[in-house]
Amino acid sequence: MSALAPPRPEAGRPGLPARRALVRWSWRLLRREWHSQAVVTVLLVVTMIAAVCGAATIDNLPPPADPRLGTADTVMTLNGKDPQAVASDLAKIRASPKKAEVIGHSSEKAPGIATPVDYRSQRLNGPFAGALLAIRKGRYPARAGEAAVTDGVAQLLGLRLGGTISLDGHARTIVGIAENPSFLDDQFVLVDPASTQPQSLSVLTKGQTGPGDLGLTTADPMVSGVGDDNDAVVLATLVLGGATILLLLVAFVASAAFAVLAHRRLRQLGMLAAIGATDRQVRLVMTATGLLTGVLAAVLGTIGGLALWPLVAPRMESTVGHRIALSHVPWTLIGVLLVLATVTSTGAAWWPARSVSRVPVTLALAERPPVRPSARRSALLAAALFTAGVGVLAWAGKTHPWPAAGATLLTALAILFAAPGAVRGLAMAGARAPIAVRLALRDLARHQARSGAAVAAISLALGLPAVLVIVLTGLQSTPKTGNLGDRQMMVQLSGEDEDNQVQTHTSAELAALADHVNQLVPGATVIPLDKAVSSEMPQHAGPDGAQSRMTVSVGVPINAEASRDVSTYVASPHLYRLLGVDPARIGPATDIVTTRPGRLVIPPDSQDPDISRIHGPAYTSMPTTLITAAALTRHGWTTIRAGWFVQSDRPLTQAQKSAARSFAVSNGLTVETRDHQAAVTNTRLCCVTVGFLFALGILAMTVGLIRSEAAADLRTLTATGATRTIRRALAATTAGALALLGVILGVGGACLAMFAIYRHDLSVFGRVPPGYPLTIVLALPLVAVVAGWLLAGREPSAIARRQEA
Q: How many domains does the chain divide into?
C-alpha cells in the first residue's frame, strides 16, 4: 500500500497556496480578536494623523516667497532725494527688455513705536511681488486720500476701517486691512503709488540685471536672492526623521500588544506547528496580522490627518509667520509615511512572532510562554550604544547636525535595549515591598517583553519633549542676552530713524516727562540718557512742526565706503555703575567706552576714536556704547536728553508694561521692554503637553494590556479574598512603575545627551522654567498612580470561569 504523495506546490511559486491560506486565517483571527488590536490600531492612527499634520506643517515652514524679493532674483534701491534723477532711472528701467516692478517706500515716525512705519506704494498682483501683498478686509486704496494698514499698525495706533491716519502729514481714510502673506510681521501703511513721492524705490527684476548694466545714477548696490537648493532636502529629512522617531515609539507599544496577542494565540500556533507548519509559516500568521493592521491604520490615519489639516493650518500661521495654503500638502512625503507606518506595524509583529515560533510544540500546546532571555546582554548593548551616542553628541555639538542626528538615534535604541533590564531591576528592588506592590512588579518582570517595550515608548514620549525644551531654551534669549533684561525698560523721547535724530523738548517738558517715568515702576532706578550733539548739525522740523536734532553717531564699517550706525549715549556715573565700570580706569584720552568688539569709526570722516573695551551685558538695546566726557570737550559737542533707562529690582509685570506703552503713545515717546519670544515659548509648551498626553495614553493602553493578560491571576486573587484595596494597589503600582522607569530612562537619558552637547554652556539648564521638569518628572508618575488607583478595584465579573481569548 503506497502512501499518498503530498500536494505539489504551484510551479515557480512554491508554498503560495499555503501562504494564502495562512493570510486568510490571520484575517479571520484579526476580525475575531479586533478588540485586542484596537489599541495598536488607534495608536497607529493617531501617530499617522500627527505625522501627516506635522509633515504638512514642516513643509510649510519656509515662506512661499522671499519676503523682500518675491519671485524676483534681484532688487535695486533707488534713492528718491532727486526726483528728476529717479524719473530718469525709472524710464531706463521701463525701456529695458527685462520685466521690472517698482515699490515705493517712505519711513514715517509713529508715537509709541520704536521703529519707523513704512509707507508703501505697491500695486496688487505685481509680476514679482504679487505674493507679498494681499487685502484681508476692505479694499485696495485707489485714491490720493485713501490708505490700507496692517493689523499690527492698526493695533498699535488704535486704528480701524473708516478711520484716518496722518503719520506723513496727509490725512488718509483707512479703506482696507493689508498684509504681506509671506511675512506676517511686516508692518506698513499701503498707499496708492500715484498719490505719494516716496523716499526710496525698490526695483524688482529677474535675470541679475545690475545698476551698471542700465546706467542708473540713483541705485544703491543690488541685493540678489540666492536660494538654497538644499532647503527642501533638509526639511524633507526633518519630516522623515521626526516621523521615524514617532513610528519607532509606536513600534515599541505595538510590539507589546503583539506580544500579548502572540501569547493568546500560543495554543493555536502550537496546533498549527503540530500539523506540519514550518517556523516561517508560524511567523507569517503574526506578521500578516501586523501587515493588515498597519495598512488599515495607515489609511485611516492619512485620511484623518488630511481631514484635520484645514483646522491645524490656520492656527500655525502665527507661528510660521506667513499664510499657509491648504492645498500645499507634501504628497510624496505622505506616501513615504504610509509605507513607514505599514513597515512599522509589520516589524512590531515580527519580533514576538520570531520568539513564539521558537517555542517547542509541547510547550506551545501547554500555553507556556518562551523562556525569558538574559537581560545582561541587552544591558551591555544598551550601555555601549548610549556611550557611543553621547560620545558622538559631545564631538558633534551644535556644529555637526547630521552626526548629531545619528547619535540621537543611537541613544533611542539604547533606551530600547535598556528597558527590559530596568523592569527586572525594579522588580528586584521591590523584593521587600508589600504584597500587592511586589506582585505587580513581579508581573511586570514576568512579562518583560511587553512591559519593556512600553517603558521604551514612554521614555521616548518623555525624552523628546525634554530635548526640545532644552534646545528651545537654548535658542531663547538668555538672561544676559537679547534686547533687554526682564527687569529693564528703555524710554526714548522719539524713535530713531536712519538719520539718528532726537526730538528737542523744553526744560519744563523734560521735567514733567521725567516725573511720569519715575512713577512707571515704583522703586526702580531711573537713569537719564543723553546723546552728543555737534553745533554743525542743524535742527530739522517734522511734518507736525516738532523740532529734532541730529546726534553724533559711531559706526561699524561695512566696507571701504559705508558703515552701520551704533546707538551711543553720553557716559555718566550712573551708566558706568550700570555696566560695572570703574571711571578711574578710563584714561583721559579715551573717546569711546563699549562692550562691542571690532573697529568703530566716527562719521563722516571715519575717524578712529580711542576705544576702551569693557566686559558688560550683551543686550542689543542697552546703552553699552558710551561717549566719554573728555571726548565731548575735545570735539566741542554738547548733550541733548534722549530718554531714560529704567532698572527694577524685580521682573516687570504686564500691567507696568501696558501702563508704560499707554504713556508713550499719549506723549509721543517709545518704550522697549524684553522680547520674550512668544513663538518659542508656545512651541515649548505644546511639545511638553503633547508628550505628557502621549505618555499617559501609552500608560493607559499598556496597563490595560497587562492587567487584561493577568485577568486569570486577578480572579484567583479575588477568589482567595483579595480586597478592593489590593486590586487598586496592583493597578496603581503597575502604572506608577512604568511611569517612573520612563522618567528615569527618558528624561535622564535626554539630559545626559544634552549635557554632552551643551557642556560648554551649562547655564541653559538653569534657564529652563521649573514648571516643565516638574510636569515631566513629578506630575506624570503621580497622575499615573492616582489614575491607576481610581480606575481599578472593580471585582471581576466572573471569578470561577476562565475567559477564553
A: 3
